[in-house]
Amino acid sequence: MSIEKSPVSVGKTDTANTTGKAHAPVDAPAAAGDATVAIDPRLLVREQGFAGYIGEFKRKMRAGDLGATPVVIGLIVICAIFQSLNSAFLGAENLNNIFVAMVATGMMSVGIIFVLLLGEIDLSVGSVSGVSAAITAVLSVTHGVNEWLAVLAALAAGAVIGALHGFFFARIGAPAFAVTLAGLLFWNGFMLQVLGSNGTINIDGEGVVGKLTTYYFSDIAAAYGLAVVAVAGYFLSAFLGNRRREAAGIPSRPLSEIVLRTALLAIAAFAVAIMFNQYKGLPLAVLLFAIVLVATDFLLRRTSYGRKILALGGSVEASRRAGINVTAVRISVFAIAGLFASVGGLFWASKIAAANQSAGAGDLLMNVIAAAVIGGTSLFGGRGRTWNALLGVLVITSIQYGLALQGIATPIQYMITGGVLLATVVIDSVTRKTQKSAGRA
Amino acid sequence: MSATPVLALRGVSKRFGAVQALTDVELEVHAGEVVALVGDNGAGKSTLVKTIAGVHPIDEGVIEWNGSAVAVNKPHDAQNLGIATVYQDLALCDNIDVVGNLFLGREIKRRGVLDEVEMERRARELLDTLSIRIPSVRIPIASLSGGQRQVVAIARSMLGEPRLVILDEPTAALGVEQTAQVLDLVERLRERGHAVILISHNMADVKAVADKVAVLRLGRNNGVFDVRTTSQEEIISAITGATENAVTRRAARTNAEAQK
Ligand SMILES: Nc1ncnc2c1ncn2[C@@H]1O[C@H](COP(=O)(O)OP(=O)(O)OP(=O)(O)O)[C@@H](O)[C@H]1O
Ligand SMILES: [Mg+2]
After folding, report:
1. A422: closest CA of chain B, how far (Å)
2. How much is the pTM?
């Protein structure tokens, strides 16, 4: 009799046979012998060269890996509609205003993308942005503190508030949704308290905060210079990265693909630069936003800290077992969201030249989250880039300005923005389904 | 074989609420030795693995590393000692690609920045030596089959020269050829002087590569056997806790049928 039930006993021939069961199936010697890495014929090996690039792009589209394509198309459609309604829409002044106005929401959106990557949500960013504006105004205007110090205090306060939310979530284990909902109420009250009875504090238009949205580098070299730096920087990093990959003998992109991507970037960058130079030049706000986007993208994709955030969005347990300090990463992510909320609050205060009681209220929070999601950040965690904030906030601000040009009132604006958000999450959910069936979810 | 075991568990106990998952468990693993840990479903094998790996800190008892007591309270502690673990539930991040998962928690950096090129090169090298077929090392884990994921998890444990490798049912989802490769790998680890704990329900695999078989039953030790001198029946009766059990009954039945 035998207890060997396995249909084929596998393993090393010699040892497996020491079981000595005469009628036990003998193991297949083919197992180990010719097991050199044969290429599986089913593998989708990418063709070399440009044809391969196009082929992969098509395959990705069909597999539901749409990336930024829907938003870019959406943006083009929005621009076309508003331009046909009013030719001032694509005029230099209006576009410039859109770019400057979007920075406040955009900065906050960058922060919320960090939280969304964890698969969590921060509902307090609107209120925290109001606190930041109030702290700066009260310190610098009412108490005459140096404005730089006041700004630093506001930024630090934002980060500490975020870390506090993170502490209750990560350490105590309360749901982030509830903690930050409490934060939304608490910090809104705190801001009203700080502002005091008079309610509105006007800020110095020539001060640090005032200049955030009003300063322009009027020399045309600034906008063009930034475009050149961006394009050259992109090309060099892609090109040199590719060279290293080739040297290491691992698959690299064809040069034609890099050139194509660089060309597309160059067209966009110079178009925007020309537009700025037709108005007042490169806005300081846009420069700062660009720096933040590049820096945060680098942080998320090129550092081990960023990798930890993505890992937590994928699987908390796997991250913990890989030795990642889950609590510390979570707290730091909420601190980042708080920091960017207060950065956004400063830009907001700069735009309206005051810290007032309605700061951080209204549709701000919803726009911040909507921008992240419209830009392509998944609400389920683990998928998204901070560049999503740029695309999303461009869509939302374009709609706002386009409708304002038509003299269409706020209620309609809300309804349209809501519709766009719904369309985005529908696209997101549908692509997730396609991705599942294509094995990529 | 060295006199002091690389890892020794002395009277380890672990409770989950009302469930006493482990009671006074003893286990010794020496360098260059493969210890198979066997037991029925729910016997506490995976729990034991997780206590060693720092996922579930022990309630009572002592973990000794090279003869001296150590505290293993979090996964990092175990990694620092040189313990690499392949979990039964694999513990991979679906949204991150194969390279990223292999190096998760110990990324290679170049001037403070992730060195994707070097990581990809090493990942390919490693996967090649394990003769693993994966469509691309740059696709997310979510796109891989169960067996491919398992192989990635195993490859992950091979990075960074561990002193002790723990494999919790590493061949459960693997095909014939991949299973043979994993068994080869276990033998290679032993030849290189690593200690290995192998959990498996497949007696043929256990017999093929293990030196010792430690049986766990209902969260307690139920004997440690030398593979060469112990018959499969003895091990199975230790696992089930009776000489007369479902396995022997079934074997007798099939034997009787065969004789007809
Ligand atoms: N996180 C947990 N919380 C509560 N109980 C648990 C937990 N993990 C395991 N247990 C319990 O501990 C006991 C041992 O489980 P364990 O996973 O170690 O079994 P196992 O020997 O690995 O079984 P299998 O062969 O099915 O993998 C079971 O009764 C299980 O219900
Ligand atoms: Mg188990």
Report:
1. 24
2. 0.86
